[in-house]
Amino acid sequence: MDYSPPYQMRNVIPAWERDASGPRSIRGRVAVVGVGETTYYKHGQAPEPEVKLALRAILAACDDAGVDPRAIDGFASYSNDRNDPSRLAAALGIPELRFSNMQWGGGGGGGSAAVGNAAAAIAAGYADCVVVFRALAQGQFQRFGAAPPAATASGEAALTFPYGLISPAQRFAMRVMRFMHDHGIGPEAQRAIALASYHHAQSNPRAVMHGRPLTPEAYDDSRWIVEPFRLFDCCMENDGAAALILVPAERARDLRQRPAYLLGVAQGSEYRNAARGHNAPTYASASFTTVAPHLYAMAGVGPKDVSVVQSYENFTGGVLMSLIEHGFFAPEEANDFLTLDNLIAPGGRLPLNTSGGNLAECYMHGLELQIEAVRQLRGQSPNPVPGARVAMVISGPMVTPVSSMLLGTEDVL
Amino acid sequence: MSTPAYYLPAGLPQPVPEPDGLDAPYWEGTRRGELRVQRCRACRGWQWGPEWICHRCLGFDLEWTAVEPRGTIYSWERAWHPVHPALRGRGPYVVVLIELPHAGGVRMVGNLLGDPMQPVAIGAPVQAAFEPHDDATPPFTLVHWRRTA
After folding, report:
1. Is the pLDDT of residue B1 over 70?
2. Does residue B23 belong to the interface with chain A, where contact is any CB pair within 8 Å?
3. Does B130 touch chain A (CB under 8 A)?
4. Nearest CB to B47: which of A1, A152, A154?
5. A112, A343, B57, B92: which could form a disulfide with A196 (CB 3.0–4.6 Å)?
């Protein structure tokens, strides 16, 4: 097998792409003007059907923006959301449906891509007001963390399920194990990421883990799920829904909230990332080594310009690799950089997951992270980073495709 | 009749070849104690997991080559939480990812036989151990790994 890596060449960004203000960039053209969510519930505790949660979140986002729900003319989601845009449009009495988009791929890897797809539709003139949404009521359907009930496994699953390699935690643990081995990273690095999310959740009344602080001792005493992940390294499973409203930049200024402008979005995966049976050539990776350079090129900013980061925690080890692949520190610096003090608002070097994220706010399949990034730029976060101008969201490490995005305030444009 | 001693309890999803037959030669090989990997007849490149086309030269003429069933540990995990009813009460078990340097560096997923609490070292040499499930319908064989000196 030839693993001579053409993927390394992908990190060379062509000249036309380095022109962030050029015609093939989303930078400054589209803004997030509304965000909304339902109450976030523990897994299985939503009192309403999933589709009703989706409708409530969309209406909440419209209300936040000051946009008439009947102005929505497009829908974008990811990870095979069960709530079909045609049904939602009929339910909401939307006069004209112009854009319906589903990002391929499972897990939370499509969260930022769905925003990017919605923005691309607006920039291209396919639609004028697109809602990005995700609704989950896992209690009403199959949950992610348990094995599906099938008696047989075929394809990729045949190579893994019979060996007890079934759940997402089990699927990703060996990537993280290899990465930590290669770079001498200790368990305290993962612990700091978990502690930061729980720390921020204590100031966020929306968070499922509000009022449930996590101490370093409780983390160390928690049971293994699959080494190197303890219980608190793993995301929750929750019920709820979340939504964001996107419009063209020129319309955004007249609405109720301070707009959060898209600076860039990138999605994709590395060379042969999906080679079956854990044969991705760049195995010890969160899958962003090719994606992140495109993101920065489009946004016209670098890691040092980023005020605050929301990084999808399926597992803390995935956050660790995501931050490295987005250039915030080198693998060899991980043990020193990843401390609680560095990761918390308002004064940390890199405030991370400032709403509590998937670990402690809600596992809304990551879309709560986009909402928090917007709130940071408006000064509405429960843990505000003073003067935040550029906010990053990283979606779904270790799946394929993944995606990430940058938002900025008007003065960044 | 005695119950065969399997590394993991019976009741986990059983492997079956894909409906389109792509990986059938692999599973047939395991029944004969052979570890088969795809190899391109045109460019002689190795390929795993299976696909209908060679990712290097884009030829469709792939053969199935039995390779020496030994390798080194590329990564590993020790699973504790029982995600499947069949695993309840089993206790921890070790999953390994094995690199086969003599077959282009392709990797295979399996379990590491022996004490589940044994120390596991990335880079350690291992040998395949075939685990036939003759009592299953249809019968199948898993490929586990065992440390060698």
Report:
1. no
2. yes
3. no
4. A1
5. A343
Q: Which residues of A218-242 are buried (b: 16+ CB within 10 A; e: fewer)?
A: ebeebebbbbbbbebbbbbbbbbbb
Residues of A in contact with B144 (CB under 8 A): 163
Q: What are residue A261's DSSP bridge partners? A: A31, A408
Work out the minimum CA distance from B126 to partner chain A, whole angstroms.
17
Residues 6+ away with beta carbon under 8 Å from A304: none
Give yes or no for a contact between B120 and A264, defined as CB atoms under 8 angstroms apart: no
Number of domains comprising chain B: 1
Amino acid present at B94: V
The predicted pLDDT at position B133 comes to 97
Distance CA A101, CA A105 (A): 13
Task: Read off the pTM.
Answer: 0.96
pLDDT number for residue A397: 97
Residue A171 lies in a domain: no
| DSSP classification of residue A360 | I
Answer yes or no: is A61 within a domain: yes
Query: Rounded to a whole number, what is the distance in Å from the CA of B81 to chain A's nearest CA?
Result: 5
CATH no. for residue B55?
Answer: 2.40.50.840
Reported ipTM: the value is: 0.97
d(CA A145, CA A185): 26
- Tell me which residues of chain A, numbers 172 to 231, contact chain B at a CB-CB cutoff of 8 Å: 173-175, 177-178, 181, 223-228
Q: Are strands B125-133 and B106-111 parallel, antiparallel or unpaired?
A: unpaired
Q: For residue B1, tell me if it sits in a domain.
A: no
pLDDT at B100 over 80: yes
- Count of domains observed in chain A: 1
A78 part of the active site: no
Spell out the residues 6+ positions from residue A60 whose beta carbon is closer than 8 angstroms to its own: A36, A37, A38, A243
Q: Is residue A361 part of a domain?
A: yes
Residue B4: how many other CB atoms lie within 10 Å: 12
Q: Could you list the residue range(s) of the whole structural domain that residue A372 is in?
A: 25-141+235-412
| Predicted pLDDT at A6 | 43
Q: Which CATH number goes with the domain that contains A275?
A: 3.40.47.10
Flag residues of chain A having pLDDT under 50. Answer: 1-10
Q: Tens of pLDDT along A280-317?
A: 999 999 999 999 999 999 999 999 999 999 999 999 99
B50 domain-assigned:
yes
The full length of chain A comes to: 413
Quick one: average pLDDT of B32-36?
Answer: 98
**Average pLDDT of the segment spanning B50-74:** 97
Question: What residues of chain B, 73 to 92, have a C-beta less than 8 Å from chain A?
Answer: 74-81, 83-85, 87, 92
Cβ distance A166 to B83 less than 8 Å, yes or no, reads yes
Partners of residue B51 in chain A, C-beta under 8 Å? 276
Report pLDDT digits (tens) over A204-254: 999 999 999 999 999 999 999 999 999 999 999 999 999 999 999 999 999
Residue A175, pLDDT score: 98
Domain residue limits at B132 = 24-147
A312 is catalytic: yes
Would you say residue B15 lies in a domain?
Answer: no
Read off the pLDDT of residues A144-163 as tens digits, 9 standing for 90 and up: 777 777 899 999 999 999 99
Judged by CB atoms closer than 8 Å, whether chains meet at B95 and A164 is answered as: yes
Residue A29 lies in a domain: yes
